[in-house]
Design a protein that fits this description.
This protein has 147 residues and is an all-alpha fold. The N and C termini lie far apart (35 Å). It has helices at 2-14, 18-32, 49-53, 56-74, 83-95, 102-118, 124-142. The longest helix has 19 residues, at 56-74. It has a single domain (2-145), classed as Orthogonal Bundle (Globin-like). The mean pLDDT is 95. Helix 1 crosses helix 7 and helix 6 (102-118) runs antiparallel to helix 7. It has seven helices and no strands. The structure holds protoporphyrin IX containing FE. Protoporphyrin IX containing FE binds next to helix 4, helix 5 and helix 6. Protoporphyrin IX containing FE is lined by residues 36, 39-40, 61, 64-65, 68, 89, 92-93, 96, 98, 102, 106.
Length: 147
Amino acid sequence: GKDKELIRGSWESLGKNKVPHGVIMFSRLFELDPELLSLFHYSTNCGTTQDCVSSPEFLEHVTKVMLVIDAAVSHLDDLHSLEDFLFNLGRKHQAVGVNTQSFAVVGESLLYMLQCSLGQAYTAPLRQAWLNMYSIVVAAMSRGWAK
Ligand code: HEM
């Protein structure tokens, strides 16, 4: 449908430059919630948040995040096929101390990155399309917190 077209169309260019876009997203995330930085055990090696975000370990995580988004975009027709993967990914994030409430601010940071990168192409329907996909990903990851 229309949602999928909007997501695929916008990801076509962004997906070719994953790391810089991921850096915008995570810089925003740490700006909105600096405490999330401390969940990365390697964060003690950096001075400022900007140093952190551009350190090799953080760039690696940023790349991992962008690859998950890439996988979701490629599987828009069968997001169910990612459920086991996302469940396990959720469990790993529970283990490192992430709280499911933080996914709201992650979503905000994702939208911020899209807005920065897409400019005029960032419209209300596009925003909603991404939110819809993101909420499916978050729901699947959040099952990893269930006892
Ligand atoms: C791994 C933190 C959000 C994807 C990790 C690790 C930490 C972490 C500490 C383990 C160390 C590392 O691999 O760097 C966080 C925090 C987040 C967040 C604080 C935001 C609150 C996300 C999101 C995704 C994601 C939104 C993708 C949708 C991954 C992947 C791994 C990972 C793929 C590697 C898992 C593995 O080892 O199999 N994350 N993460 N993370 N994260 Fe995140």
